[in-house]
């Protein structure tokens, strides 16, 4: 699969309001250069989870982006990405799943 930057993953709630995460990266090396999260005002989802935790529950993962404020763009610090083992965009998608939730 050829990757083209940026890649956005989004999850709308039952009213159509969404939370999304955008991954910008070098098109040759796939190394992440920035990651931002946005949440529509009124979106029921407040967090994004990478992978799953005990019992297969996403909300128990050790890799959350929790409590995203509505109506602003939140830059995810590089240190957070590194602690999750995310250096490239393919690292993110290899984490098994991305889920939105409370």
Radius of gyration: 13 Å
Determine the mean pLDDT: 92
* Total count of helical runs of at least 4 residues: 2
Q: Count the E strands.
A: 7
Structural class: mainly beta
**Relative helix content:** 10-25%
The helix-strand sequence is EEEEEEHHE
Sheet with the most strands: spatial strand order: 1-2-3-6
Beginning-to-end CA distance, first to last residue: 32 Å
**Global shape:** globular
Number of domains: 1
Q: Mind describing the biggest β-sheet?
A: 4 strands, antiparallel
Share of residues in strands: 25-35%
Spans of at least 5 consecutive residues with low confidence: none
Walkthrough of the structure:
- With 102 residues, this protein is mostly beta strands.
- It has one domain (7-101).
- It is 11% helix and 34% strand.
- It has helices at 78-83, 89-93; strands at 7-12, 18-25, 32-39, 47-50, 64-65, 73-75, 98-101.
- It has a 4-stranded antiparallel β-sheet, with no helix packed on it. The protein has a 3-stranded antiparallel β-sheet with strand order 5-4-7, with no helix packed on it.
- Strand 2 (18-25) and strand 3 (32-39) form a beta hairpin.
- It starts with 6 loop residues before the first strand and ends with a strand.
Please tag this protein with its features:
single chain, mainly beta, three-stranded antiparallel beta sheet
Summarize the structure.
The protein has 102 residues and is mainly beta.
Topology:
Layout: E1 7-12, E2 18-25, E3 32-39, E4 47-50, E5 64-65, E6 73-75, H1 78-83, H2 89-93, E7 98-101
Antiparallel strand pairs: 1-2, 2-3, 3-6, 4-5, 4-7
């Amino acid at each position: 699969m050829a990757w083209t930057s940026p890649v956005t993953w989004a999850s709308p709630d039952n009213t159509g309001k969404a939370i999304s995460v955008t991954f910008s990266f070098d098109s040759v090396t796939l190394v992440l250069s920035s990651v931002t999260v946005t949440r529509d005002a009124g979106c029921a989802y407040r967090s994004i989870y990478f992978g799953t935790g005990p019992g297969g529950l996403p909300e128990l993962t050790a890799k959350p982006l929790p409590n995203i404020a509505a109506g602003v763009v939140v830059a995810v610090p590089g240190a957070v990405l590194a602690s999750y083992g995310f250096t490239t965009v393919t690292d993110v998608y290899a984490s098994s799943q991305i889920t939105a939730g409370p």
